[in-house]
Amino acid sequence: MIFSDFEYFIFFLFVFLTVWYLFPAVFKEPSKETRILHIFLLIASYFFYMSWDYRFGALILLSTFIDYFVGWQLGKTENRKLRLFYLYFSLITNLVFILGFFKYYNFVASTTNSVWTPLFGKEALPILNIILPAGISFFTFQSLSYTIDVYRKEIQPELDFIKFSLFVSFFPQLVAGPIVTAKTFIPQLYEEKNFSDIPFRIAIRFFILGYLKKAVLSDQIAPTIEAIFGNPAGHHTSALWIGAVLGGVQVYLDFSGYSDMAIGSALLLGYKLPTNFNLPFIATSVSGFWRRWHMTLNAWLRDYVYFTMGGSRVGAARRKFNLWFTMFVSGVWHGANWTYVFWGSLNGVFYVIEEFFHDFFPVKKETKTSSAPKESLLSRCIGPLRWILQNSLTNIAFFVGAVFFRSLTWETSWIHIKGLFFFQEGTIRPYMWKDFAWIAVLLALGHLIGYWIFEKGKGRNIPRTLEFCFYPVIVLILCLATPENSAPFIYFQF
């Protein structure tokens, strides 16, 4: 069951009507209604997650029990060693025995065997038939944020098991984020929810925009991307560049589309999820790009990895290593494959190169005064040209990295990279240029409109009646433009 499927619309309609119409009519006591509501949302969340495989429910329940128990115990003791023991217990059980086993065991085993077998003639570790639970990295990191925050005494332990379980498993963001921390979500479970407070227009906008990104745009270009990445050795250099750009854009459309639909779904139920993407392709630096891309993961890594290692409070060399290592962890988090490890490491290198550049060419803060001389025509042109150059370099760095992110194997990723920078004969079809052209135009137009609305704050005061009159037309257009075959969200595998 994915957000763009008809089954999800039926499921969500049932949940929405039950929450806002059935429960208020049946339960007259607000406290009792809230309790039943949380239990119902918890059951609905487990049903949603177990619709892929019923066995997944046991895993998320185990993770929930572990961190609920750890948080409870941390709240009962001030003994430093004992608190540290409970923290390590949570980290080891979640990262090693749950996330490590299900996501990384076969990767570690195959890597070990590739070295061991040529030397000793037999495998060191068996390869197991392990089903990777959808979104395991998301709910594991989410649950860990609670344990770490309780250990740091930034929040109090949540003793209500139902509320804590709902925080871990809330279905709109369960499978692919946004990653929600306990200190931002659990307080919402104590707030009184009113139907009149739902921002319907904002919620519907988020969901429609997310559906457009995923079901209409991302799925339309998927066949072209699969053809290019499936055989990079057989394609022309220009086709490989098209594949690199489309591959990176597809990840953006697919993942930000899911995030938008998750935010819209949660808003319709009375809950706020954090923004996960903010026009990343207008960034003019590597650091600026990652502040706009998968913002909740980068915030999690900043708070629980980068700051833990000392952040920027250390020397210049150590700070650069901290930045690189944080991106390396991001790559490992994304997948059990050397392509993801290298992708994270490469982006860490880009980060460090940018830091060295700033060391040698520090950014000067411009101060404007009333007596400042009028800018010349040349000065006015330099600003836009500088923006174009910086933005182009930033996006090129991302798209080159996206080759490793989207490639099927380590070998094909290097074939693709070689073809990007050394001319290669091969196949280039007109439909590849067509997909590149229309997606580039729509992406640029979308970022321009988004910048105009979200950065400049213009064009938001659309009359309510006019907006709702357009919804049937928009729905019809989306239905006609949606391809027959929908693909699972890319981030389900993470």
What is the gist of this entry?
This protein has 494 residues and is mostly helical. The chain has 18 helices and no strands.
Note down, in words, how this protein is organized.
The protein is mostly helical and 494 residues long. It has 18 helices and no strands.
Would you tell me the structural class of the helices and strands?
A: mainly alpha
- Shape category: globular
What profile does the largest beta sheet have? Answer: none
Average predicted confidence as pLDDT? 87
Which stretches of 5+ consecutive residues score pLDDT under 50? none
Question: What's the Cα radius of gyration?
Answer: 24 Å
Number of strands: 0
Helix segment tally = 18
* Share of β-strand residues: under 5%
Please bin the fraction of helical residues: 55-70%
**Roughly how many Å apart are the termini?**
16 Å
Order of helices and strands: HHHHHHHHHHHHHHHHHH
Notable characteristics:
494 residues; mainly alpha; 18 helices; globular
Outline the secondary-structure elements:
Layout: H1 6-26, H2 30-50, H3 56-74, H4 80-120, H5 136-151, H6 161-169, H7 171-174, H8 182-185, H9 200-230, H10 237-268, H11 286-292, H12 295-306, H13 316-334, H14 338-360, H15 377-406, H16 410-421, H17 430-455, H18 464-481
